[in-house]
Amino acid sequence: MSKLRVQCFGLSLDGYGAGPNQDLENPLGVGGHAMFQWFFPTRTFQAMQGGNGGTTDINDEFARRGFENVGAWILGRNMFGPIRGVWPDDQWKGWWGEEPPYHASVFVLTHHARAPLVMAGGTTFYFVTEGVEVALQRAREAAGGKDVRVGGGVSTVRQYLSKRLIDEMHLAVAPVLMGRGENLFAGLDLTALGYQTTEHTPGPGVTHVIVKRQ
Amino acid sequence: MSKLRVQCFGLSLDGYGAGPNQDLENPLGVGGHAMFQWFFPTRTFQAMQGGNGGTTDINDEFARRGFENVGAWILGRNMFGPIRGVWPDDQWKGWWGEEPPYHASVFVLTHHARAPLVMAGGTTFYFVTEGVEVALQRAREAAGGKDVRVGGGVSTVRQYLSKRLIDEMHLAVAPVLMGRGENLFAGLDLTALGYQTTEHTPGPGVTHVIVKRQ
Predict the structure, then answer these.
(1) Which end of chain A is less packed: N or C, by CB atoms within 10 Å?
(2) Average pLDDT value for chain B
(3) Angle, vertex CA B86, rays to CA B80 and CA B87, nearest 5
(4) Comparing C-alpha atoms, which of B140, B133, B141, B129 is closest to residue B163?
(5) Does the residue B92 lie in any domain?
């Protein structure tokens, strides 16, 4: 059965998944990189950057698991880029350059239609204006029996959680305080929605937590 | 210099320090005991119950540190008991029986005056109606140069944090979701208030985090 998964979702101690004021210079919001300090040194991330070094510890294990059996992705529009509103042109092709790390179909949630964008390495961005459920349906079809990964951001994950559509979520809780930004938990009663933690593993500078829908 | 400290403050993954609907049967709110599973088996907690067993691991180390150099305590009224409003009589003497585990002066924040309550083992409860700053001043005087510990609950800790009066806070983050209850972080920008994490130590079933004011 194809699952809808969240993986490697960096979270501050106070529940923020991104810093405030995202823009071109701050894809994760101001200060948001602090939630991903565990991820950047891993072999998995280094390989995404074209390198061949990196750590092979438990953090890398979780990073690697995040890409296993993933057949398609769903991203919120802010995860795709800093542009808001109507697309001014087709110049913006994501944060990741000519060859994004997805190597699969990626469904981008947006209110503004745009033609699909074929990138190098097997990634195609499809822009979905019909909402989260349609995006999920299309992603499942594209995934061909594999899982679908919600790449973020916070608002997108919250929408899927509130509809009880996420099966499994890996949170990487960093020991930092953000103070403000986009909060994953605020106003969401995950317990009432049927979610429970099933795994809790410390790694260097981070705590990995697995949350599943019962 | 006498510090104002929070210690052994159990927190759920989603930021709750207590469950909802506290009452006589649920001193920590419904489900709130889940945040303290790390604490109950420790030698420190067992000794508080009159036992002489218990674990002596890193969790016990943090539990033990929580009582070191503490000269006085401050508690919110709900931490003292489930009674709200005017005291109906002097029957309620706290959750802890005749010999509470404080062995020091304990200042209870309340809107309703009550005579001090002398208990066995050196604990005296003083009821302070003049607010958190007066309670702190009186606790500092009683502590005689030692630190003052804020025992909780969530609302009391939040009041002292929002006034930047807490010097150091030990949070014990349990891998559980509460969904609702009293949230420590909601609406508090700890970063803007000058707080940062300085320590992050995994223990069995919990992550210990130290937060300090810069």
Answers:
(1) N
(2) 93
(3) 55
(4) B133
(5) no
Per-residue pLDDT tens over the stretch A17-48: 987 877 777 778 888 888 889 999 999 999 98
Query: Cβ contact (<8 Å) for A191 and B179?
Result: yes
**Is A179 within 8 Å of B192 when comparing Cβ atoms?**
yes
Give the full edge-to-edge strand order of the sheet including B168-173: B117-118, B124-128, B105-109, B70-75, B147-152, B4-11, B168-173, B206-213, B195-203
CA-based nearest residue in chain B for residue A208: B175
> What was the pLDDT predicted at A1?
83
- Report if residue A184 sits inside a domain: yes
Range of the domain at A37: 4-82+99-213
Ranges of residues in chain A whose predicted pLDDT is under 50: none
DSSP A165-212: ---EEEEEE-S----SSEESSTT--TTTTTEEEEEEEEETTEEEEEEE
Residue among B16, B169, B188, B200 with most chain A CBs within 10 A, to mutate:
B200
pLDDT band for position B33 (cuts 50, 70, 90):
confident
Question: Which ipTM score applies to this complex?
Answer: 0.84
Residue A90 domain-assigned (yes or no): no
Residues A24, A82: contact at Cβ < 8 Å? yes
Which residues 45-84 in chain A show a CB within 8 A of chain B? none
| Residue B93: predicted pLDDT | 94
Mutate to test the interface with A, among B14, B180, B214 (most CBs of A within 10 A): B14
Report the number of distinct structural domains present in chain B. 1
Tokens of A115: 């033609």
Q: Is A133 helix (H, G, I), strand (E, B) or coil?
A: helix
Give the C-alpha separation, A100 to B63, whole Å: 47
* Average confidence (pLDDT) over B106-133: 97
* A179 interface with B at CB cutoff 8 Å: yes
Residue B48: which CATH number? 3.40.430.10
Q: Which residues pair with A73 in a beta bridge?
A: A106, A149
In a domain, B91, yes or no: no
Instruction: Give the pLDDT confidence of B72-113 residue by residue, as tens digits.
Output: 999 999 899 988 899 999 899 999 899 999 999 999 999 999
Give the amino acid at B100: P
